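hi! just following up on the protien thing from before. the input was this:
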Amino acid sequence: MTTPAFQRARSAQAKQAREEAILDAARTLGRSRGVRNVTLTDIADAVGMHKSALLRYFETREQIFLRLTAEGWREWSADVRADLARKAHATAGEVAEIMASTLAARPMFCDLLAQAPLNLERNVSVDSVRAFKLVTLEEIELIGAELLRLLGLTELQTVDLVATATSLAGALWQMATPGPRLQELYRTDPRLSHAVVEVEPRLHRVLTAYLTGLGTTSTPTTRPA
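and the predicted 3d structure came back as:
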């Protein structure tokens, strides 16, 4: 296949459009192949540019996927908060169900959540890591306002809950999506059937247990004016 001729972006708008095209390509490839199987060359080929040209826009493949992880945090947080905001009161199990179901509905985000601390944060600049961490902190604070209203969770309890939910979702997604060889192994050996998990039910159980252990109750508070 012939790679289209690449023309360097000259304006700020053209540069932004090029960055969005790179992110779109990485997003599509990540969904179809899994994040760890996508190389910088794969992304460059999908956009129609040489790898060296792509590096004018992003420092590494990890920075590209870290940007997508931040995007995933914003989207997930918005859905969680929308679901929580519709409730005047909620039980521990209901809050756990919202968090588990919204994470399970985002397989690539779960994949990115697993890759971020293992790989993505380790091959980018300190400024890129700082920007990413500030996004996560902001979204956790926004979720925390709803959790305080519904269950009276403190800031630390919210941080622990969200950290548990997101880190476990990443790990469970990896377990739930083994490669073809492992799938065949688990299928042919009944003793290993437990190795493949269902993300949402297990995540729901763990988060419900955590919130129940905190002794949370449904004690709605008045929203600030």
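The first helix runs from residue 12 to 33.
Residues 153 and 192 are 38 Å apart (CA to CA).
cheers
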